[in-house]
Amino acid sequence: MNAMQQRIAVTGANGFVGRAVSRALLARGIAAAAIVRGDAHGEPGAEVRRIEGLDSITPDNFDGCEAVIHLAARVHMMGDAAAQSEAVLQAYRAANVDGALAAADCARRAGATRFVLMSSIKALGESDPGRPFTEDDARRPPDAYGVSKAEAEVKLLEFGGRTGMEIVVVRPPLVYGPGVRANFLAMMKAIARGLPLPLGAIEARRSLVSVDNLASATIECALNPAATGRVFHVTDGYDPSVAELARKLGEHLGRPARLVPVPAGLLRGMAKLAGKAPQIDRLTGSLRVDSQRIRETLGWQPPQSLDEGLAATAAWFRSTPAR
């Protein structure tokens, strides 16, 4: 490796987004220092640096790195959303606020000059205010995960102002792509099996970002001088309705989606009785995100269209055994 080669550290490098970021760095000729917990593995070609947890991270973990892309976090889980206790909130804060600040401080002491925080649109809310969210909207997080991400944003930006560390915040909406899990994978499984979905009347629009688009934008935030101290939303640039998304997935899977036109109000009522209200609320409410700032400020454009991202995801799904 060239001694002058750029090196960027990626925390949480073994995760869905972390692997995509590492691949994208390596493809650009940038060395990726994959910071992972325990015996987890990073992307082939990345230099693995192991930690026990964010509370044990040290400046040595960031040695030789000019920037850090911080993806390690306690992720949003439905069980936690249902139990909004102080204990749950403190667990999120310990990982997502204290852990992020500790990583940023260690990175600064190691000589890194930029720290990119992967936040979430949940720092603003669960549904949009009748128009796409912008980066300047007030933070009104709906749950403990969103609260922790909102607090991490504020405290890291303050940390940057106090120390001179260049902080950049990236807020994605729903991330999908090859290797996706949770609700997006469940929808693909249902469509592939020909199961009827009660989504035919759901016209709420939801912003999405492919994992490859998110990786591209995040790396731009790590490299571009104009990103310093800014918050950026990242999307594919087109917001499909839930029904449209299901239809597009069906086209790429080669199995037309069987959509039943159940009115949104009836669907929400049935979900409430079944204890599934949060999941259905996310399907029936709009969550649109304005991502013009990153395009105008950094000149970034998504390398994939929505259709290209869905095609890649469907191809992965079809090629993966036991689906």
TrEMBL record:
Q: Which Pfam families match?
A: Epimerase
Which GO cellular component terms, listed alphabetically, does the Swiss-Prot or TrEMBL entry include?
Answer: cytoplasm
Which GO MF term does the entry hold, naming one? aldehyde dehydrogenase (NAD+) activity
The secretion signal range is none
InterPro entries from the UniProt entry:
Epimerase_deHydtase (IPR001509), NAD(P)-bd_dom_sf (IPR036291), NAD(P)-dependent_oxidoreduct (IPR051783)
The highest taxon in the source lineage is Bacteria
Task: Tell me where in this chain the NAD-dependent epimerase/dehydratase domain is found.
Answer: 8-227
Q: Which Gene3D superfamilies does the annotation name?
A: NAD(P)-binding Rossmann-like Domain
Q: What is this protein called?
A: Epimerase/dehydratase WbiG
Which organism was this protein described from?
Answer: Caballeronia hypogeia
